[in-house]
Model the fold of this input.
Amino acid sequence: MASQTRQPEFVIGEVLTFSGVVDAAIKVIDNYARWEVLVSLQQHIPFLAHPIIPLVLLVLGMILIQRSMRKTFSRSVEEAGRVKLHDDHGKEILPPLKLPSMMPTYIVIFSGVIMACVIALIWILTYSPVVASSPLPAVMVPIEKTKPWNPPASVHPSVPINAPYCPNGICPTAPNFGTQTVNNGPPPLELKASLAMSASDQPGLIKAIITVTPNQPVVAPTAIALEFDNPIKSMGWWIAGSATTTGGGPFRNGKHAMVSIGTSFSPQHALLLTIYSELPLTLLADPHLE
Done:
């Protein structure tokens, strides 16, 4: 009766002293400390982080536990053999004792390895990575307007100069008298590119930034093509001075890549291309318009 009258008091005492809460908190802290030790060991000893290590440790632990149990049982049998039992007729009774076999442990380990191999094979055969089929949505980035060009005073001399009349670039004066051909058009377009590696923000992919600088303004819309030694996964673009990557329009990935450009660029505002690939890239030639 005394124990029954103390039991409610003991429970109420535990509640009032928060002993159960303290025990639970100590258990949580202990488990957290053990995880911290394991994580720190994986940082200093890299092979512990390998996925095969837990399986190897588990198998070795099962084998060692089984061998320890066999040795303990064997010693118990030897101690029990010192005490001999006899029946009513004085005949010695031999207890039917037998050491446990290691075969169940080996069967469990072998079955686990076979199951893991089957699951890995099924995963490899059915795995299909998801590849983005469309680039980033198009975002039009306004270009800062350039200031009008004011020629220096030396261009406007105070003394008038008598220049010959040359329609369409052909001057009817000596010594050719209109037989020469003068090209007054702009120079041919040249696109110079430079490639630089950058820290990737997509796991498993390499990021590169290509700066394309033309020798004259390029009016949008247009498309620019590039030749690489290895295929690319995706390509986006923006104009120097803007912090937004844009895309949209027809595009082509791979070694012979192409992307649509929806904003004009110039020598003062170069075109920047963001490239993602699985292998390191080398630009085989300067880009060109398509």
